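User: MFS transporter. Structure?
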Amino acid sequence: MSSLPVGAVHESPAAHSGPSDASRQINARIDRLPATRSVWMLILLLALGGWFEFYDLFFTAYVGPGLVKSGLYSTTTASFFGVSGLGAFVAASFAGLFIGTFFLTGLADRYGRRTIFTVSLLWYSIATLIMAFQTTAPMINLWRLIAGIGVGVELVTIDTYVSELAPKHLRGRAFAFMHLIQYLAVPAVALLSWWLVPQQVFGMDGWRTVVIIGALGALIVWAIRRRVPESPRWLAQQGRTAEAEAILSALEARVQRESGRPLPPPVLSVEPAATKAKFREIWQKPYRRRAITLLVFNLFQAIGFYGFASWVPTLLVSKGITITHSLMYSFVIAISNPFGPLIGMAIADRIERKTLVVLSALGIAIFGSLFAVQTSPAMLMILGVAITLCGTLLSVGYHAYQTELFPTRIRARAVGFVYSMSRLSAMFSGFMIAFALRHFDVTGVFALITFAMVMVMASIGLFGPRTNQRTLDEISH
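Assistant: Predicted structure:
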């Protein structure tokens, strides 16, 4: 086969000049890239930024017993919306996430993935640091909410970023790899909490030290930012073709050197229907059905996922296990978090994305029901690990899935919109879990989680489209 210049594109007779055509060419050139070191390095750098996001997100569970021990919070409250209960702390986290994902993720479509990736990481790092020094539950809740806004924007921006930088044949594995790195934060925060939360550190409650460590992520933001380029797909959509061309040509040259052979010829996919981003497109075919499906999905997946992940130590304490042992068992369970994405890397591009989501939800429902009736520490840890593996596989599947269902011009805004439902749901789930725990014990908690997983399976299994091995432009039609 004769080789073409690095940026050459096979044109179809229908191809024509203009911004949309330039965008199609950029997309086609990205999708033909082999999985070399340079491609994986871009995904790694974005995942490292997300590591601190996951640390911030998941310390909600592991500092919970310390907040209760310090006298600032109680495990449950007599009133449903008690502000001094642990449910209020969880709710504040997700209220911020809701504001960020619902109102602000469109900024990434307007100002670019790279800029918002940096700003949101700095935002929540600073807010989290301030939260660590608060001395009352209402002020902790307030700064937790402010930090959550940044985390919400960051999560959607990173998902959007990765979906656009990864070639179509690599998207599933790219998201699995990203989650592998991000979920390494969970055993890290669990280990630090097990070690630090029960004691005083430099005269401070241990939970404060755990929080401060996570806030230090801002120190590496600029180092990551210098190594990650703007999304060429986004630049092309904005008509900034020269910038997109420069970034992509440099990447193609590195990839070709690393692969040791000419790049395969790119093939133009279907032409995007429009180039200007409009929110109302979400409610037009084919996106309307997808948006409604994902709104329902996110409403329920958050109850199941965070109903366990944000309450592991507290659920164990409710089964009669001491705080110290609860944090130790939680650490053992947390170690399993990266193994879900490892499994995902092996199967994510081989099994249809919607099927992975459905099977993962089924596993959470089954293992959660068994967890609720166990009293043996060994079985609690084994089932906790099983629930965690299913939860992380669910996360790998749906984070990739929902970014694939909308076009580049509205991707961040649309994903932020549908994903915000999970934040709203998770906010109220904190109170719902606390209520179920108070009145129906751990069994009631997992009855709620099981119902949520049934709704997840029904929404995606019945109404979700297939996406594997298809270009983003093809899926957009």
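The first strand starts at residue 200 and ends at 201. The chain has 21 helices and two strands.
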